Amino acid sequence: MSPRAVKFLRTLALLAALFAFCVVMFGAFVRLSNAGLSCPDWPTCYGKATWPGHAQDIARANEAFPDRPYETHKAWREQVHRFLAGSLGVMVLAIAVVAAWRRRFAVAAVLLAAVFAAVGVVMYMRGEHVVSSCLSALAIALPLLAAAKLDRPGAWKVGVAVLAVIIFQAMLGMWTVTLLLKPIVVMGHLLGGLATFALLAWAALRWWRVGTPDDRFAHLRGPVAIGIAVLVCQIALGGWTSSNYAALACGTDFPKCLGQWWPQTDFGQAFVLWRGVGVNYEGGVLDMAARSAIQIAHRIGALVTFCYLAWLAHRLARAGLRKVGIAVAVVLVAQVLLGIGNVHLGLPLPVATAHNGVAAVLLFTLLTALASTQRLPVSESP
Predict the structure, then answer these.
(1) Residue-wise burial string across 261-299, b where 16 or more C-beta atoms lie within 10 A, e elsewhere
(2) How far does the chain reach from its first CA to its final CA, in angstroms?
(3) Are 16 and 92 contacting, i.e. CB atoms less than 8 angstroms apart?
(4) Which residues are catalytically annotated?
(5) 284-297 pLDDT, tens per residue?
(6) Rounded to two decimals, what is the model's pTM?
(7) Of 221, 269, 323, 331, which residue is least crowded by CB atoms under 10 Å?
């Protein structure tokens, strides 16, 4: 691979990671502003490529979906989010093609995956859901197989594999609508968006030569990897809290909940992952005891995450990665303050959205820490 191609990958991966961060933030804005079902069909919005704008189009939309009256201030948010996600998909496809360049099987697999994904969407719109699902499964499998067989360093493999992730993420977006905001799907969609961002950020870090020439920081890889796992679990808890509308289950009390240290809770109902098909989860379906259990679990997880990452930041700084350790500590404190602010201020949209964004930034600081402990490949141009 030529130096020009490597430079192109560096730049495109960095831009794609930044764009993915923006998509995650906008997705949080859509979800938190209760616009997740503002377009009741997928990938169109009330049958339109954009969204209804004229009076006659709005009348047709309301007639076609009488149980979901059209709301302009919400519909544009959902459809713009889909456009942004589609644009990110094009960027990821370009990265995958360049990362696989001069490896015929890998390039063919990437391009075929893109074709299968596109045809799968068309089949879904025509009502051929079984065919669409099979094509989508093939579209996901092909980049993963190509990445596994690619004889290049890890960043190139990730650059190919991320195509599979974003195709699956598109399917989660579809299921979010068709399964009426089912919490497990909404949480998965959040994690999928962060996974896309994380993989692109990781590839960008490696292509920008973030790493070490030796193994001086090898002893930190395990603790950093554990920190990433802890943070991902806490993000999943946050997604479960949001998708079950439990963010204000404790009112505006902190650290107490509803004026008590341990109010009535129902953990058995709080973490039932699958409740069948056909239930509309908009606004939540759990009683207050179950929602309180989710909120308390999220707070306990936040405490565990804070303690571990604070210790990790201190250890990174003392071991020689001072800037990274300070970055982890600063972003961690900001995230905790935003979480407390969400409760005390009654979940204002800007603060809640920022809470999602700073979680992604915190994940990025940990990825930077992990990359800093990894040895750089001898050559950038395999």
Answers:
(1) eebebbeebbeeeeeeeeeebeebebeebbbbbbbbbbb
(2) 6
(3) yes
(4) 78
(5) 999 999 999 999 99
(6) 0.95
(7) 323
